[in-house]
Amino acid sequence: MDIVVPIKFVPDLVEELEIDEGTGQLDRTFLRLVPNELDDHALEEALLLKEKHGGTITVVAIDSGDVDETLFTAVAKGADKVIKITGEGYEEGLSSHACVELLAKALGDLSYDVILTGTQAVDDVDGSVGGLLAAKLDLPYVGYVTKAVSEGGKLVVTKEYPGGLLAEVETDLPAVVGIQAAEQAPRYVVTSLVMDAMNNATIDETEGGEATATGAAEITAMRAPEKGEAAEMIAGDAGAVAEKLVQIMKEKGILS
Amino acid sequence: MIQLESADRFLAQMSDSVADGERIRRCLQCGSCSGVCPFGFAMEYPPQAMIASLRAGELSPLLDSDSVWLCISCYACTNVCPSKIPLTVGLLSGVKTEKLMKGSVPEELQAALTSARRYGNTLGESPRKRADWMKDLNVEVPLLAKEKKPVDVLWYVGDYPSYHPRVQQVTRAMAKVFHALGVSFGILGPEEQSDGDVFHLAGERGLFELLAGKNAKTFQKYEFKEIVTTDPHAYNTLKHEYPKLGYSFPVRHYTQYLHDHLDKLKSLMTHPIEAQVTYHDPCALGRANDNHIYDEPREILQAIPGVELVEMGHNRTTSICCGGGGGGMWLDGFAWEKAGARTSEWRVLEAVHAGAKVLAVACPYETPRFDDAVKSTNHSGDLVVKDIAELLSEAITG
Cβ–Cβ of B107/A191 closer than 8 Å? Predict the structure, then answer.
C-alpha cells in the first residue's frame, strides 16, 4: 500500500501566544512552529499500515518551522520519500484552502493508494484539509478515523462520531482519510537514526509558488478567551465535601 | 562483513565501546547485582539473568521483556559487582538502547525524550522561560550573555531547578547563599540545555551527545574558572561523560564548592535550625563512577547551628535511590504498575524510623519525589524535605 502523509506546521502552545494589536493577528515574532499533533498520528497510522501490508510512505510538508528535521525524523521512522514544498511567506500561516492547493500541486503525478492527513490542526481547527483535498483530487474522504485496515483492495476504517459512537466504513482506493488518533501513540525514534537520515537521506524539493486559492474564512479579529467565573471551592472535612459533591452531581443529573 | 548473532554483537559492542565493558565476560553469576537492585524482585530479567541469557546467545528475550525500564540507574548493582562489570552504564543502558532502537519505550519516558530533543529540557517548557525562576528574587542573578565579563563560577542550574515549582524554591535559596558568600557567578539562562545524563543512562546516547555538544559550545563562549552545579546528574556527566566527547570543563557539585567556604558559611549562619536531620546520598554523587562525595554534604549540615545529624540504615554506598535516575523520573506510572512499590516511600520511612524531622537532600529530583512520598506514606507533619541549600539559606537569613 502506497501512502502519502501531508504534515502541517502550527504554533507551539509551549510559548505564550500574543495578538499583534496593529494587525489583529497572531504575533509571530517569537512563535515556534511544530508539526501538527494529528499529522504525527497520521504518520504513525501510516507506519502501522506499512508494517502490516508493506508498500511505501511519502511525507509532504510545506516549508515552515523545522521542516527539514521533521522530514528526516519521518525517514528515521520509516518514510521512504520526503518532499518539501518551497516558497515565500509560508511561515505566516496558510488557510486550509491554500494548503490544499499547494499539496495537490506537489502530489502531481505521484501514484498512491491513500492519503492520511490529521483530521484537523490546532491553529485554526478548521478541519477541512482532508475534505478539500479529496474534492480537489476527486477522491472519497473519511475523517475522524482511529483505525485503518486494508482488506481486499479496499480500506476499512473506524470512524468516530459524537456521543461515543463508532462506525466501520469501507472505502474504495485511492482515498483521503483524516486521522483523529493513531492506534498507538506516535513512536519515538532515537536521535542517532535521525542523524543517520540527515546524513544519508535526501529531501525532494518542489516549488509551491504563491497560493491563490479563495474561499477560506477570513480572520477579522482575534482575542484571548474571556475568563469565566472562579471555581467554587467546597470547604469542610472529607465527609462534608463528599456529601456536597454528591448533592451537586445529583443536581446536574450526573447521579440519580 | 560477518553478521554476528545479536547476543554476540551486543557483547562485542559492550567490550568495544564501554570502558571495562569486556569484564561482562567475567561475570561469576553470583547474583549480587540482582539481589541489591531495588526493583530486582519485579524484573523478569535482573542484571545477572540478563548476562546469563546473553551468554546463552539470546538477546531477544531481553528485548521482549520490558523489565529493563524498571532500572533507575542507581549504580547499586555496579557497586557490589565483584567482577567490577560496568553494569549500569554498559549492560543496562545498552539493553535500553536496543529497546529504543526497536521503538519499544514506555509512553511516559517517550514524552520526556521528545521534549528534551525539541526544547532542551525534559519538562516540555519554553527555553525562553528557563531563567524565570529568578523573577521576584531579591538578589541579582547575572546572565552571562548580558554581563559579558569573566566570572569565577558558571552555575549550571539544570532542568528541574529551572522549571519545577518546588525545585525553583531550592534554586532561589541557592542564589541567596551564593550572594551571601559574595561569589562571582553567572548563569546561562535560556542558553542552557538539559545536561543529558539521564538520556545517556536511559540508552538514548544520540540525544545525550546532541545536548552535550550544545552545552559545550555555550560553555566555550564564556570565561569562568569552574562550573558549579545544583544537579548531581549534571556533575556526574560533566565530570565523566563530557570529556569522552572531547568537552572537558572543571566541575564541582555545589556541596563541594560550599565545603571549601565552610568557615565563611559558619560565620554567616546566625539562625539555628533545632532539628534532627538525616541526609540522603544521591546516587550520582555517591556510587556513580565512585564519586564518593559523602563527607562534604554531611559536614556542611553539621556546621548549621542546632542541627543534629542522624543516619538512616542505608547510607553512603548503600543509599537507596529516590527512583528518579536513568529515566525513572518519567516512569513512575510504569514502575508502580510493574512493581507496586516506590523507592522514595521506602526512603521516607527509613528517615522517619531514624528519628529525623528533616530529610536533607542535594539533588533536584529528590525534593518533589520525597515530598510526594511523605504525603503518600501519611507522614506529613512528621518529616519535611529540604535541600541543603534551603537549610543554609534559612540559617543565614532566618
Answer: no
